[in-house]
Amino acid sequence: MDNFIARVTERFSGQDVINANAEAEAAQMQKLRSQNEHMRGAMTQYDLCLKEMRKLSVYNEENARSVRELVDTARSVMDSLGVAAAKDDGSDENRLQEITDDMKKDIYEAIHRENVKVYRNVQAVLLDEMTKQKVEIYEMHRRQRRGIMASIILLAVAVLLGLGNLAMALILSNWFSLISG
Q1: For the purposes of burial, counting CB atoms within 10 Å of the CB of 180, is it exposed (0-12), middle (13-18) or buried (19 or more)?
Q2: What is the DSSP letter of 81?
Q3: Is residue 110 within 8 Å of 30, Cβ to Cβ?
Q4: Which residues 6+ apart lie within 8 Å of 137 measured at CB?
Q5: Taking 70 as the threshold, does the pLDDT of residue 117 lie above it?
Q6: Pair 24, 147: CB distance under 8 Å
Q7: Average pLDDT rounded to a whole number, residues 65-81
Q8: What is the radius of gyration, based on Cα positions, of the chain?
Q9: What is the DSSP string of 85-138?
Q10: Residue 129: how many CA atoms within 13 Å on its side-chain side?
Q11: Ranges 1-10, 80-89, 96-105: which has the least confidence
Q12: Closest listed residue to residue 1, CA positions, set 177, 174, 164, 173
């Protein structure tokens, strides 16, 4: 019986539990490194989206500048035709002003719509990545809890076997002292 208990306690030693914990921690570190690399990739994509937004903003500003130049050119043409326009009631100039104002409004609305689209796309990508990471972290914690519970159970079994071995040794020593004594 002592030989059996000795073999069982050898199998489930504290060093085995420590080794199992070390392996679990190493696996956890590898998982965290993988998540870190994944996040770096997501941040790179986010940076690319921001760069694209900046390019679009610059492009929109250039377009607005071009429209302003066109309006200024149209005004100078109208001014050069000012003699004919001065004889009229000025309705052509007012009409041109209304058209340019409408064009400006349309351009600003188009720019705003595009900016909103880009913002929503970036927001959707970030939310998707955050959801994926939450799931991965939850799974990682769940696996860690399982490993810890297994280690606790093995430790409890080892302690119980050790106590059983101690009890058997005490019983046998008392029994031998009764027989010999």
Answers
A1: exposed
A2: T
A3: no
A4: 35
A5: yes
A6: yes
A7: 80
A8: 40
A9: HHHS-SHHHHHHHHHHHHHHHHHHHHHHHHHHHHHHHHHHHHHHHHHHHHHHHH
A10: 18
A11: 80-89
A12: 164
* Residue 80 buriedness (CB in 10 A; 0-12 / 13-18 / 19+): exposed
pLDDT surpasses 90 at 99: no
What span, in angstroms and rounded, lies between the C-alpha atoms of 46 and 65? Answer: 29
Q: How many residues does the chain have?
A: 181
Say if residues 171 and 19 touch (Cβ distance below 8 Å): no
Give the type of residue at 25: E
Kindly report which listed range (15-29, 37-51, 96-110, 164-178) carries the lowest average pLDDT score: 15-29
pLDDT of residue 84: 47
